[in-house]
DNA sequence: CCCCAGGGTAGGG
DNA sequence: CCCTACCATGGG
């Protein structure tokens, strides 16, 4: 990808079919981005603000440098991953091919694992606007201020002092206990996220499932979105529908290595179909 | 009043 | 292994 500095912005030449920023940042894998009035998208990730826009051929990241792009955003946005070859390996039937046509611009972000873990603890039996609200309020209360109404997601250390009463008013509901258990396990040394990062996938699953509130679905989301384990396969209500309708005999084993990527394409495609019908 | 939301847990068959 | 009630909260 060609990357150049233009004034205070960085321009990256990309094909929108292989990288769709709006789809990627608004498909439910992260909860800290919002569309801007100018048609772009902005949010907070990796402890920083980022404001971007996209045309059919170019991504613009505002107020940054090529150095910062290579140091932070290239990796975060998954620009360093060869999606052309991943997608090629996933074309094994008509359904996935169609989903890829519609949603093939989605990439799996490389998010901070602690943020992803907390976010998907909050996500259970919840909807995306409310998840976003809770994550924002959690950041406002415990994170660092970057600007007006802009706060970083708290670190484990910043959440370590939180008591149950400190989590009131964040719309967490009963999920406040899950956050507390998660933080206690990390600070207490029972759980090491760096060990999860390097462990075999099934061992990583066992470690994460020990946290209260981490069941099969949340666990796979954390592995996929927080640890970039592209073989993790979250089964939510949408994917359950897809599996029942199109894969009654199970998801193709040939897709196993990148099942999570395929899952995102199918998730986005199915959700879009359903929205089109109900509209 | 109902229902649902990118589910999970506890408890009982 | 299965099934079910229940879990806070807010929006439709």
Walk me through this protein's architecture.
- β1 and β2 form a beta hairpin.
- The chain is globular and about 50 Å long.
- The mean pLDDT is 95.
- The strands form 2 sheets. Strands 1-2-6-5-4-3 form a 6-stranded antiparallel β-sheet. The chain has a two-stranded antiparallel sheet with strand order 7-8.
- The chain has 13 helices and 8 strands.
- The protein is α+β, with helices and mostly antiparallel strands.
- It starts with a strand and ends with a helix.
- It binds a DNA duplex (13 and 12 nucleotides) through α6, α11 and α12.
Q: Give the topology string: H per helix, E per strand.
A: EEHEEEEHHHHHEEHHHHHHH
Rg: 19 Å
- Give the structural class: alpha+beta
- Shape annotation: globular
Give me the count of strands. 8
* Lateral strand order in the biggest sheet: 1-2-6-5-4-3
Q: For the terminal residues, how far apart are their CA atoms?
A: 38 Å
**Spans with pLDDT under 50 lasting ≥5 residues?**
none
Helical element count? 13
Mean pLDDT: 95
Strand content: 5-15%
**Biggest sheet features:** 6 strands, antiparallel
Classify the helix fraction into a percent range: 40-55%
